[in-house]
TrEMBL record:
Signal peptide start and end residues: none
Originating species: Neobacillus bataviensis
SUPFAM superfamilies: Homeodomain-like
Protein name in the entry: AraC family transcriptional regulator
Gene3D superfamilies, A to Z: Homeodomain-like (1.10.10.60), PAS domain (3.30.450.20)
Keyword Transmembrane helix on entry: yes
Source species taxonomy: Bacteria, Bacillati, Bacillota, Bacilli, Bacillales
A GO term, aspect molecular function: sequence-specific DNA binding
Record's keyword terms, sorted: DNA-binding, Membrane, Transcription, Transcription regulation, Transmembrane, Transmembrane helix
HTH araC/xylS-type domain mapped to chain residues: 674-771
Membrane-spanning residues: 25-46, 299-321
């Protein structure tokens, strides 16, 4: 009874499989094998000749493409090297540098040469040769040359100002000469005194040349204008092959082309062309054996015949074993789908494919469920894509590719335009106005959420970006026929009101001009990031529409308070910190009183810091040591509050400097110089001398002169002269006094006044007065 049950199950299994699978498998094998067999025979008997011609043409086309690539590599080296030699660093100033004493200049040249050497993988070495009184060579370090080396490098200057390629073998350890590009220095001089020499890596250049003939037993050569081989790759193992090839190329007058060439009973496909180099022309020649070109098609045709014949033979044999062997994966798939019980399979249909179909439908339903869950993550994907787009990470993508990706994420871009908005929170550093003084990330997150909630009610398509630095951006997508400027301004007002009420901060919103190109989206975001600096430098709510700003802008005349700056510098020299604080406030008040843009005020305070830093350097103190390596320019550029700027100047810049200076300087000496400066300012119109001032303060002229230079930063006589000339300039512009009277009023005789005024200003007093009067009339 047991054996009977086993036999019955086997019969059912065999009958369930039936002949459907086996017959289908046999038919498939026959259909797949016979056409392949016929195709292989036809290709082998009739197609080799035609395919050979096509492959030769294709090979020539590929060689041209690779030759263009090689040409671009050498052209890049020429252009990049030429770019460097036009740098002011490689000008006539190199003649006047003592590279032993001025080691920083030598170090800078070494860094520049190292940068040039690493700019391209074909560059092996770069050298700077200077034919000075004592010729030197940077390679890239400083080297002194012997007589033999001097002769060699001077020979490279024989072509004058001409940039040229040479065969070069000066480097140690080089067995064979390689190519080098020579750029005379200075390039604008008729009589160059040096050269920048860029040497090509011979091994890498040879590997690049070999790409023109990617077959075994081929050859590739590079010839100069004199038909001399400057680079060669010959794997034919025939020494006379190159000479025969050069002779054959000489018979062709065309600049480029291809032709067959037979040598020692072997047929080659020859391709040649020209490279246009600076002041020269090169010729490349590629020789590929025809057997290497046609070998793939012969191999493929034979392989098709073998595979097709084998498949036809296997079709007969394997059909008898299909129920046992080939059917196993299908049965395993069905078992995994519906379970181990064979009897339960009958409810799905007649055969296994009906079962698979039914199960596929059930799995599709589950897949749809998973797809719905994944759709919930699309928002995060969209935000990530927009952030990368705004940051410019997709600059190499084409417009259509970017549009396709955005449409994939669900945006409708048909007939759509784009506008960018930037939100900048201000007042964050004011503890009286802000309750989130220690968490700018949280504040930005809250502002971003406010923008998103309000935008949902006003725009069909938009995306808000959190920059986490007290600023946020928003991309608005709308139909290009619609005008949404009014809607954008209403949105800005709503966001401003909400941020003021909830976060207690002020808002500056910048609106870009529109664009219809996805690739320009990063640029309009850069516009609004830059454009927000045109805001008035006050802690108030502002909306900057760049389209209206550029069309309706009325420039306010900018006035830099030079006089106040001079008073600040003078107060710093004397160390009067209380007076400095008053002057700093007056300086910023003069800037902000005209309601000019933030960008101009930031430039003005950066200029003031530069003047203060100059004074610090002049006193012998390095700012990097004084401020412990902090980037003071970056700190200042991030401050957007006038009171914070005043506090920063007094407490972070000037106070540390005065404390350091007072530790080094005699305060009594400072008071003496202050007395002398006061006397000069009160008596500059009279005869005043260093000796008289020294007698008055009770010291000798030499000590007073040295102390005056140390503390005031200028010589006694130069300070007196500058003061008198400045007073004379004011009288020339603001009064109608005669020049003789002006000379006497500032303490000079008329003839000497004309001479000293022209020396200081560059023009005589009368001409200076006329120029200023003409300029005032034009301004009026």
């Amino acid at each position: 009874m047991l054996f009977k049950n086993i036999d019955t199950k086997k019969v059912k299994r065999f009958q369930w499989k039936g002949n459907f699978h086996r017959n289908s498998f046999i038919l498939i094998l026959l259909i797949a094998s016979i056409p392949g067999l016929i195709t292989g025979l036809c290709i082998y008997w009739f197609g080799v000749g035609k395919v050979e011609d096509e492959l030769r043409a294709s090979n020539a086309s590929q060689i041209i493409q690779r030759a263009n690539n090689m040409d671009e590599q050498f052209q890049y080296i020429e252009e990049y090297t030429t770019h460097w030699v036009f740098e002011p660093r490689f000008g006539d100033s190199l003649k006047n540098i003592d590279f032993v004493k001025q080691f920083t200049e030598a170090y800078d040249i070494t860094k520049t040469l190292s940068l040039l050497q690493g700019s391209h993988n074909l560059i092996s070495d770069d050298e700077l040769y200077l034919n000075l009184d004592n010729p030197i060579l940077f390679k890239p370090q400083y080297n002194v040359l012997d007589e033999k080396q001097k002769i060699f490098y001077n020979s490279l200057l024989s072509k004058g100002t001409e940039l040229h390629w040479v065969e070069y073998s000066q480097s140690k350890g080089r067995k064979s000469p390689t190519l080098a590009f020579v750029s005379p220095i200075p390039v604008t001089s008729k009589d160059p005194f040096g050269a920048l020499i860029v040497t090509i890596d011979h091994k890498k250049a040879l590997e690049l040349l070999k790409t023109l003939t990617p077959y075994e037993n081929g050859a590739t050569i590079l010839l100069n204008e004199q038909n001399k081989v400057i680079l060669s790759s010959n794997s034919t193992n025939q020494s006379n092959f190159i000479n025969a090839l050069k002779k054959e190329i000489g018979k062709h007058k065309e600049k480029s082309g291809s032709f067959p060439f037979e040598f020692n009973h072997i047929m080659y496909s020859i391709s040649f062309g020209h490279f246009t180099r600076i002041n020269s022309n090169w010729t490349y020649v590629s020789a590929s054996p025809m057997s290497s070109i046609t070998a793939p098609i012969v191999f493929v045709s034979r392989l098709i015949i073998i595979i097709s014949a084998s498949a036809l033979f296997l079709a007969i044999i394997l059909s008898w074993f299909t129920s046992v062997k080939i059917y196993a994966p299908v049965r395993k798939l069905v078992r995994n789908l519906v379970g181990e019980e064979t009897d339960s399979w009958n409810k799905y249909g007649k055969d296994e494919f009906s079962i698979i179909e039914q199960q596929w439908m059930e799995m599709t339903q589950k897949s749809d469920l998973l797809e719905n869950r994944l759709s919930e993550q699309v928002k995060e994907l969209k935000n990530s894509f927009i952030y990368q787009l705004v940051q410019g990470y997709f600059f190499h993508y084409h417009e259509e590719d970017l549009r396709q990706r955005m449409e994939t994420y669900g945006w409708n871009l048909r007939n759509r335009s784009f506008i960018a908005l930037d939100l900048q929170l201000t007042g964050f550093n004011d503890p009286k106005e802000n309750i989130y003084t220690n968490d700018d990330g949280l504040v930005t997150f809250m502002a971003t959420n406010i923008m998103g909630e309000i935008a949902k009610e006003m725009f069909e398509q938009f995306n808000v970006i959190n920059f986490s630095d007290l600023s946020a951006g928003m991309l608005v997508i709308y139909h290009h026929d619609d005008s949404i400027r009014e809607e954008l301004h209403r949105f800005s007002e709503n966001v401003t009101e909400a941020v003021n009420r909830i976060i207690k901060l002020q808002v500056t919103i910048t609106i870009s001009e529109k664009t219809e190109s996805v690739k320009k989206i990063p640029y309009i975001f850069e516009e609004v990031r830059t454009g927000k600096r045109f805001r008035t430098f006050e802690n108030i709510n502002q909306v900057i529409d760049l389209e209206e700003y550029r069309n309706n802008r009325n420039d306010i005349e900018f006035h830099y308070p030079f006089a106040t700056e001079k008073e600040i510098i003078q107060a710093i020299r004397i160390g009067q910190l209380d007076e400095i604080e008053v002057l700093i406030k007056r300086f910023t008040q003069e800037l902000t009183s005209r309601e000019i843009s933030e960008i101009y005020i930031q430039q003005a305070v950066i200029q003031l810091y530069s003047s203060i830093q100059h004074e610090i350097l002049h006193s012998g103190i390095h700012p990097n040591d004084l401020f412990e390596g902090k980037n003071m320019y970056e700190e200042l550029s991030q401050i957007r509050n006038v009171d914070r700027i005043n506090h920063w100047f007094v407490n972070d810049v000037i106070s540390p400097y005065i404390q350091r200076l007072e530790g080094r300087m005699n305060l009594e000496l400072k008071r003496i110089i202050e007395q002398v400066v006061t006397k000069i300012q009160d008596n500059y119109m009279h005869d005043i001398s260093l000796e008289s001032c020294a007698d008055e303060v009770g010291t000798n002229p030499y000590s007073l002169s040295k102390a005056f230079k140390q503390i005031a930063g200028i010589n006694f006589i130069d300070y007196l002269t500058q003061l008198r000339i400045e007073k004379a300039k004011e009288l020339l512009i603001q009064s109608d006094m005669k020049i003789n009277d002006i000379a006497e009023s500032v303490g000079y005789r008329h003839s000497y006044f004309n001479r000293i005024f022209k020396k200081q200003i560059g023009i005589p007093p009368s001409q200076y007065r006329k120029l200023k009067q003409d300029a005032n009339q034009m301004r009026v």
